[in-house]
Amino acid sequence: MSAGAVRRHGAAAPWIAIALVLAAGVEAAPEAELWQRWVVHAPESTLAIDHREWQVFLDSYLFAGADGVNRVAYGRVSAADRARLADYVLRLSGVPVSALNRSEQRAYWINLYNALTVRVVVEHYPVASIRDIDISPGLFADGPWRKKLVEVENVPVSLDDIEHRILRPIWRDPRIHYAVNCAAVGCPNLQPLVYSAANAERLLSEGARAYVNHPRGVRFDKGGLVVSSLYVWYADDFGDDEAGVIAHLAGFADPALRARLKSARGVADHAYDWALNDAR
């Protein structure tokens, strides 16, 4: 999830405009615009991609905090493991993605996105926020999201390409937002398990439930319902309007939270913590 481009607000629902005023200066996310090049797939393919190196990395450097936030020990990644991570990304870049079935492709793109995000942070560490890694092209670029970080099938690809031009428009599943991790405390957790064709449905729903039921996703204060800015930036994905967003949240909320959401009068505010998800 990035804040790499300002969203077009002309057709935004009124509650979104109000929320954006409440958080003056916040940048919203790019819209989902299909990159037709990556629609090709092989429905009958049984080819499976091995993500073992990524799993070993997660086992070594991802830690679950007592506050419910998963953090990465970026500063402790050894030179050898940096090289292994780079080798994993290089191997993925050589995968014939168009020859995979849809389920394998989804797992492939999610794992590649997350591994690229971790790699770019490790390469620029120490930083206070991923937004400080200003390597994207453009005078007013923010963060690394628009930088072409890898070639897939000989085509240069950026993090924004993977999220907004491939994953979101092809699968049209709001749970994608709970799978791609932007290395921020306010982001949905980086999962401790690599995604696969077999476990993706379970992990996507588990990620949604974990985030919705955590205060950085949804909470109530004296002013009313406060949600993650994720639900403002990507309102179209979560139901388009305020009622749709609340309905999405209720679908993954635990019983007590679901009851409060049903009585909510609307979204009062939104927030997001861009501090690096660093396990110091």
Structure, described:
The chain has one domain. By secondary structure, it is of the alpha+beta class. Helices cover 38% and strands 10% of the residues. Strands 5-6-7 form a 3-stranded mixed β-sheet. Strands 1-2 form a two-stranded antiparallel sheet. Strands 3-4 form a two-stranded antiparallel ribbon. Helix 4 packs antiparallel against helix 5 and helix 8 packs antiparallel against helix 9. The chain has helices spanning 14-22, 52-61, 79-93, 102-124, 159-171, 200-212, 230-233, 242-252, 255-263, and strands at 62-64, 70-72, 148-152, 155-158, 218-221, 224-228, 267-271. A hairpin with a 2-residue loop joins strand 5 (218-221) and strand 6.
Give the ordered list of helices and strands.
Answer: HHEEHHEEHHEEHHHE
Percent helix: 25-40%
- Please count the helical segments: 9
Beta-strand content: 5-15%
Total separate domains:
1
Q: Report the radius of gyration as a whole number of Å.
A: 18 Å
Which strand order spans the largest sheet, edge to edge or round the barrel? 5-6-7
The oligomeric state is: single chain
As residue ranges, the low-confidence spans are 1-14, 16-26
Decide which structural class fits the backbone: alpha+beta
The residue-averaged pLDDT reads 91
Characterize the main sheet.
Answer: 3 strands, mixed
Features:
about 10% strand; disordered N terminus; two-stranded antiparallel sheet; about 280 residues; alpha+beta; about 40% helix; three-stranded mixed beta sheet
